[in-house]
Amino acid sequence: TDLYSVISGKAKVFESLVLDFLSPLYENIVVPEQHGFHSGRSTTTNLLLFQDYTIQSFTSQQQVDVIYLDFSKVFDRVDHGILIKKLYELGIHGSLLDWLSSYLSKRYH
């Protein structure tokens, strides 16, 4: 095992811990219809709900319009300064905000 793998593994564990801490904050902000980055939701659950909605709409002869967007890479381009400001506005302060700022400033995509 090389050093990079060990560090990378530890970073992933720490990222997971930070995500667990931040999750309750964004759960109250993001609409329930959002499926990405939510526990128990995925593209599969989204498609199943959409299929059910579509069948119901067609049965009652209603029009269905849909636009699906893939934002998976958009977070690689987020302005870190704006993100840190938003986190501060959400109540993230002190050591955690300092760590997140440091982490983001040293992360390359």
Structural notes for this entry:
With 109 residues, the chain is mainly α. The radius of gyration is 19 Å and the shape is elongated. The mean pLDDT is 81. The protein is built from four helices and no strands. The protein has helices at residues 3-27, 43-59, 80-89, 94-105. The chain has three domains: 1-30; 34-68, no CATH class; 70-109, no CATH class. 0% of the residues are buried. This is Reverse transcriptase. It holds the Pfam family RVT_1. GO terms for molecular function: RNA-directed DNA polymerase activity. Residues 5-104 form the Reverse transcriptase domain.
What's the helix and strand layout?
Blueprint: H1 3-27, H2 43-59, H3 80-89, H4 94-105
Helix pairs in contact: 3-4
Structural domains: how many: 3
Order of helices and strands: HHHH
Secondary-structure-derived class: mainly alpha
% residues in beta strands: under 5%
The overall pLDDT, averaged over residues, is: 81
The whole-angstrom Rg is 19 Å
Q: What general form does the structure show?
A: elongated
Largest sheet: none
| Fraction of residues in H or I helices | 55-70%
Tally of extended strands?
0
- Which regions contain 5 or more consecutive residues with pLDDT less than 50? none
Distance between the termini: 23 Å
- Helix count equals 4
